[in-house]
Specification:
Elements: H1 10-20, H2 24-29, E1 32-38, H3 56-63, E2 66-72, H4 78-87, H5 91-94, H6 113-119, E3 123-128, E4 166-169, H7 177-194, E5 199-205, E6 212-215, H8 216-219, H9 264-294, E7 301-307, H10 326-329, E8 330-331, E9 333-336, E10 345-352, H11 356-364, H12 378-382, E11 392-398, E12 405-411, E13 415-422, E14 425-436, H13 454-466
Length: about 475
């Protein structure tokens, strides 16, 4: 911690220490934070308008807070997205565009979101998948991160291969990863109640990430015949061929068709598996929130739930994330704040994952974090309809035919503009995509090449080049 140069005296030093080390009386007034991450969860929930999926616990949370209808991640794959959210900086700052690079290689002195809370008197604890696998940040936490004993795919036995992409099991909930994680979180909350210290508890669930494994009772919630297939199982017209990948990850599992297009019967089984996995993780989230209520901590705890990116369930003939399209960059984001005047409200405002760090700091009354590249959306929790950002920004790298490209995408209220540029020279444009969400919400037709849209493309390109700072709320 740096102490301002004016504090030369010992008395000044003591004053600085007193400000940072929060006394018990002040700590009691600070809101706790329950920080719930859900892997590969797209906005496929009842509270986002899906009438078929069964997500009663997340929907209950939505009724106690604000649902952000237009939240976007910074890159639609696990580590880049989480690195941006937890540092409050964008992928070109973290230099994390893959699943192996740690953000501290590029920004070694960054103070992360949980680290900021820790430095301001909070007890910070992580369990499950918060940072990406193998890329934890120990200095973010007051105690070492913990993980369920069950493996990522299924139960406690070591996996010899990846097995099926989806499976209904006869296991109890807590024989699988997320049920064990819920047990851990419930136990941790009991310990938090005994501490005379505000807490930041991060709980990272892995479903509905592949493989879509969950107990059979969650599969039985659905009639497969009523699960609709994607309405657009085809690539966007006139888009560059590399803009979307079909899904290499899912094809590494047993029994998955090797052809790009899944037969309808297999596609429906896979989507059924995803829905069942959502219902399974919803039940585990409900257990954690119920324990928060039982312990009398709900009225002193901010709850935030987010999915790290979207996922294509057959849209654009793909079963994956890994792109700049709406299905992948659009994410669920729910925030419940005790005493908020906007309980059960919805916000159409454009918000980004980099905004979460300054927002939670704002809600907790912490000093404004330094070096973040987002903007606190706390005002939207008071007035969800308030005019807000002009655009949200995401990106994804590609290497087609030996090219080294970065696709930068900008989402405004009406349009999505994606510009594919040389990674070493952003002035060298390889391709442009433009989608009008007023007439084409599924992003099925790239209209950037239409001569009638020449001026529009130029205008939006100028807005994109002006960058995220120019899109901030006025």
């Amino acid at each position: 911690m740096k102490i301002h140069s004016i504090l030369f005296s010992a008395a000044g030093a003591l004053l600085a220490y007193a400000v940072i080390s929060t006394p018990a009386s002040a700590a009691e007034t600070r809101k706790n934070v329950l920080f719930i991450a859900v892997d590969d969860l797209r906005p496929e929930l009842g509270c986002y308008g899906n009438p078929i999926i069964k997500s009663p616990n997340i929907d209950r949370l939505a009724k106690s807070g604000v649902v952000f209808e237009n939240a976007f991640c910074q890159q639609a794959v696990c580590s880049p997205s989480r690195s941006s959210l937890l540092t409050g900086t964008r992928p070109d700052t973290t230099k994390v565009w893959d699943l192996v690079t740690h953000f501290r290689k590029a920004i070694p002195d960054i103070v992360t979101l949980p680290e900021h809370f820790k430095a301001n008197g909070y007890f910070t604890q992580s369990m499950g998948k918060i940072y990406h696998h193998g890329l934890d940040d120990p200095q973010s936490w007051s105690v070492p991160s913990t993980f369920p004993k069950a493996n990522f795919g299924g139960g406690g036995k070591k996996e010899k291969n990846r097995g099926p992409a989806f499976l209904a099991t006869n296991d109890a909930d807590n024989a699988l990863h997320d049920g064990q994680l819920a047990d851990m979180a419930v136990a941790a909350l009991g310990g938090m109640k005994e501490k005379n210290q505000p807490f930041f508890l991060a709980v990272g669930f892995i479903r509905p990430h592949l493989p879509f494994i969950s107990p059979k009772k969650y599969w039985d919630l659905y009639d497969p015949a009523k699960i609709p297939l994607a309405a657009n199982p085809f690539r966007p017209k006139d888009a560059p061929g590399y803009s979307i990948v079909s899904g290499g990850e899912i094809r590494s599992y047993e029994g998955v068709p090797k052809d790009q297009h899944f037969p309808d019967d297999y596609a429906r089984q896979a989507k059924h598996g995803y829905y069942a996995a959502v219902s399974y993780v919803d039940a585990q989230i409900g257990r954690v929130i119920d324990e928060l209520d039982r312990l009398g901590l709900r009225e002193s705890t901010v709850i935030i739930l987010w999915g790290d990116h979207g996922w294509k369930l057959g849209e654009h003939d793909a079963w994956a994330k890994h792109s700049n399209v709406e299905n992948d960059t659009h994410v669920p984001l729910l925030v419940s704040v005790p005493g908020s005047p906007s309980v059960g409200k919805r916000s159409p405002a454009l918000v980004e994952f980099v905004d979460i760090y300054p927002t939670l700091s704002d809600l907790a009354g912490l000093p404004k974090p330094k070096g973040t590249e987002g903007f606190s959306f706390k005002p939207l929790l008071d007035d969800p309809a308030k005019a807000w950002k002009l655009a949200a920004f995401s990106q994804y790298p590609r290497t087609p035919a030996g090219k080294n490209l970065m696709g930068y995408t900008m989402r405004t209220e009406r349009y999505r503009l994606t510009t594919w540029v040389n990674k070493g020279d952003v002035k060298t444009v390889d391709a442009v995509e433009l989608y009008d969400h007023q007439t084409d919400p599924q992003e099925n037709t790239n209209i950037a090449g239409d001569p009638a849209n020449k001026e529009l493309v130029a205008k939006l390109t100028a807005q994109w080049r002006a960058g995220w700072k120019a899109a901030m709320p006025k």
